[in-house]
Amino acid sequence: MTNWEKNKQFLSNSEIAFFDDVPEYILNYLRNNIIRKNEYSATKNLAGHIKEEYHYENRPTEIDNFFVNKISENENIKYYVDDLQILTKNVPIVMDKLWCNFMKKHEFNPIHKHAGVLSFIVFLKIPYNLEEEDKVYVDMQEKMKKTSRLEFINFNSTYGLIPRVLDVDKSFENKLLMFPASYNHQVYPFYTSDEERITVSGNLRFQV
Q: How does 162-195 read in b/e, with b if 16+ C-beta sit within 10 Å?
């Protein structure tokens, strides 16, 4: 079983989260329509300690529809949205920001949460081997290994802070993870590759 399958099973049983494959036409758009120029930079508005983060501009409707339509495909996510009860009438959910992160060795994304109702991550490229990453701090206990991983941190009144660590590796490539925008999460730095870790993130919000 790959780390993607193991983490998918783990989070699906313990959290409100949705996992799926991403079709090729969406991947092609995400890979080929990001412009790495200063005028599209998103770094000033994002938490990431990452030098290259860029907004997608003038997205076709089919891209937004793909992510919005995922809400109705998962019962947990759909129930979460329906149960929010923060508006006086029904309004549509629409795509807000969509951006791409080009994370380099030693860069990181500190603990943060997103704006909106739901957020997602599409993993385009994971350049490292997780086993090699774990050798950087070889004496760490298994449960304490954080290098290069994605971690969700939620609060429980009984146990306090509860970390949910995802062992992100190459098996995550071309996959989608969707979760409530209010979930605190962070990405730890990687050390063993000179290539970029490329992910796409976005937020879904109520249109009022």
A: eebbbbbbebbbbbbbbbbbebebbbbbbebbee
